[in-house]
């Protein structure tokens, strides 16, 4: 198979042996981020489709996710960095009940590489922990990720809780993850939250939104 297809296959098949060698070869042809966006994410999409249609079982999805994570970790040092730093701080978390973190961690990498301090709380984070961390770290914004449909409900509850605690005006909120869409966030959730809430389709939109928040 040609290199790009081989790499995509590795994600779908969860095949780690020889991954690094293939990635190193790909790096001689293309920038690291392009490999992630065009090749690896395309593999994860296929995994989602196979799982969704019952053609792939959960343990294999997990294997794919692990290969994806290993690939991103290997590519990370090769990504372009803006060493300026100190552009602002965001507390980032996957919401309560949700374990999906590949997308959130990509957002962390993109923001960190572009001068932001990211406090990454990890997965299954209750809103109280997110608010406490944002307060403790004097965050400029809060980012929540979630991939399950039920996480969209959790996000709405989180925004309501932030209203109730009087912190909506303190923290603009960035939301992302496959279960969300722009209209749900910009119409429904924006009507709920007393502060600013925005939808990021991908990590790069997350970066653009942070840039505009910090302007
Ligand atoms: Co799960 N899973 N999963 N899964 N999984 C989905 C989400 C699903 C759509 C698959 C399917 O059915 N087709 C489905 C959800 C269905 C629904 O809710 N209606 C699903 C399910 C059902 C489940 C379980 C319930 C399965 C089970 O146990 N029976 C279970 C849930 C457990 C839980 O959370 N409580 C489960 C478990 C898992 C694994 C552990 C095996 C694994 C996750 C491993 C991990 O993350 N460490 C996994 C995986 C890998 C997936 C799919 C296949 C791939 C997700 C992924 O990593 N994509 C996924 C299918 C899909 O998404 N279509 C699926 C790549 C990643 C880069 O994309 O996270 O969307 P994404 O991030 C994007 C953007 O969304 C955005 O930027 C990224 C790209 O630049 N973004 C942000 C994300 N967060 C952002 C935050 C921002 C800004 C942008 O600012 C704050």
What does this structure look like?
- There is one protein chain.
- It contains nine helices and five strands.
- The protein is of the alpha/beta class and 215 residues long.
- Helix 8 (182-192) links the parallel strand 4 (173-176) and strand 5.
- Helix 1 (3-13) packs antiparallel against helix 2 (19-27), helix 1 (3-13) packs across helix 3 (32-52) and helix 3 (32-52) packs antiparallel against helix 4.
- 38% of the residues are buried.
- The model has no long low-confidence stretch (mean pLDDT 96).
- The structure holds CO-5-methoxybenzimidazolylcobamide.
- Residues 87-215 form the B12-binding domain.
- Methylcob(III)alamin binds at residues 97-101, 145, 203.
- Belongs to the vitamin-B12 dependent methionine synthase family.
- This is Methionine synthase.
- Catalyzes the transfer of a methyl group from methyl-cobalamin to homocysteine, yielding enzyme-bound cob(I)alamin and methionine. Subsequently, remethylates the cofactor using methyltetrahydrofolate.
């Amino acid at each position: 198979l040609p290199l790009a297809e081989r790499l995509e296959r590795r994600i779908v098949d969860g095949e780690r042996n020889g991954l690094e060698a293939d990635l190193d070869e790909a790096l001689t042809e293309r920038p690291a981020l392009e490999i992630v966006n065009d090749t690896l994410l395309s593999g994860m999409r296929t995994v989602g489709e196979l799982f969704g249609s019952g053609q792939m079982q959960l343990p294999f999805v997990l294997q794919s996710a692990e290969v994806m994570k290993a690939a991103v970790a290997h590519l990370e040092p090769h990504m372009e960095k803006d060493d300026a730093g100190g552009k602002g701080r965001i507390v980032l978390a996957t919401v309560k009940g949700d374990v999906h973190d590949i997308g959130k961690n990509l957002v962390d990498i993109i923001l960190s590489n572009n001068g932001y301090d990211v406090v990454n709380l990890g997965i299954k984070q209750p809103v109280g922990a997110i608010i406490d961390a944002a307060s403790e770290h004097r965050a400029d914004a809060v980012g929540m990720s979630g991939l399950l449909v039920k996480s969209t409900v959790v996000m709405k509850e989180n925004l309501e809780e932030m209203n109730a605690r009087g912190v909506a005006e303190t923290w603009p909120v960035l939301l992302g993850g496959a279960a969300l869409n722009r209209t749900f966030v910009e119409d429904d959730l924006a009507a709920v939250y007393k502060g600013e809430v925005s939808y990021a389709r991908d990590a790069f939109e997350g970066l653009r939104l942070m840039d505009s928040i910090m302007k």
